Amino acid sequence: MALPAWLQPRYRKSTYLFIYYLIQFCGHSWIFTNMTVRFFSFGEDSMVDTFYAIGLVMRLCQSISLLELLHICLGIEPNHLLPRFLQLTERIIILFVVITSQEEVQEKYVVCVLFIFWNLLDMVRYTYSMLSVIGISYAVLTWLSQTLWMPIYPLCVLAEAFAIYQSLPYFESFGTYSTKLPFDLSIYFPYVLKIYLMMLFIGMYYTYSHLYSERRDVLRVCPMKKKKM
């Protein structure tokens, strides 16, 4: 008895990726819709408790996104490992280390702004990737997925840097993650964050350069495909 097409070995990868992208798209769409509805219902007051309202789903989506590193290593996704690793670690560090560990930071407006930027990028990216897996391509969506990040990604990094800056007084006051080591050594976590703050902008330059090069290649190939059709 023949297996359904989507269960055949050559389609399993596409089926898995489609389901993965669909789950991520639904998660980020729910977050963005929830934030939009809350803002129009409660105004600026909704920005203060953004993390309490959608923080759990955001952490779930970002945790699942770590699978993308495995996808690249296994050859399931044709992306480059280092740029994706830098993008994911930025979010994991900011979300889990900086924001989740400090309740005072969770109430800052920058958290709401950061979540808006992240979700705008991810909704477009996962929509484009999901449709590409099943062979559907729209010129407008391709252009948007390859262009939207150009203004928003640097704004994301600035918002991440500002979140770190606002968190420093709380890490200094509460001593979170700071620890003493043997031989009179110690780790003062605010210093670690300040070093990471500098690395954040170096990583942004590398990632931006890679994404720009990728955009140029994709948009160069896209018109060729249209002509063949």
UniProtKB/TrEMBL annotation:
**Gene Ontology molecular functions:** 3-hydroxyacyl-CoA dehydratase activity; enzyme binding; very-long-chain (3R)-3-hydroxyacyl-CoA dehydratase activity
Its annotated pathway reads: Lipid metabolism; fatty acid biosynthesis
What reaction(s) does this enzyme catalyze? a very-long-chain (3R)-3-hydroxyacyl-CoA = a very-long-chain (2E)-enoyl-CoA + H2O; (3R)-hydroxyhexadecanoyl-CoA = (2E)-hexadecenoyl-CoA + H2O
Record flagged with keyword Cell cycle: no
Q: Which GO terms describe its biological process?
A: fatty acid elongation; sphingolipid biosynthetic process; very long-chain fatty acid biosynthetic process
Sorted alphabetically, the keyword list is: Endoplasmic reticulum, Fatty acid biosynthesis, Fatty acid metabolism, Lipid biosynthesis, Lipid metabolism, Lyase, Membrane, Transmembrane, Transmembrane helix
Principal place of residence: endoplasmic reticulum
Q: Which GO terms describe its cellular component?
A: endoplasmic reticulum membrane
Q: Does the keyword Ion transport apply?
A: no
Record-linked InterPro entries: Tyr_Pase-like_PTPLA
Q: How does it sit in the membrane?
A: Multi-pass membrane protein
Where is it located?
Answer: Endoplasmic reticulum membrane; Membrane
> What is the recorded function of this protein according to its Swiss-Prot or TrEMBL entry?
Catalyzes the third of the four reactions of the long-chain fatty acids elongation cycle. This endoplasmic reticulum-bound enzymatic process, allows the addition of two carbons to the chain of long- and very long-chain fatty acids/VLCFAs per cycle. This enzyme catalyzes the dehydration of the 3-hydroxyacyl-CoA intermediate into trans-2,3-enoyl-CoA, within each cycle of fatty acid elongation. Thereby, it participates to the production of VLCFAs of different chain lengths that are involved in multiple biological processes as precursors of membrane lipids and lipid mediators.
- Family under the similarity heading: Belongs to the very long-chain fatty acids dehydratase HACD family.
**What name does the UniProt record give this protein?**
Very-long-chain (3R)-3-hydroxyacyl-CoA dehydratase
Query: What species was this sequence derived from?
Result: Canis lupus familiaris (Dog)
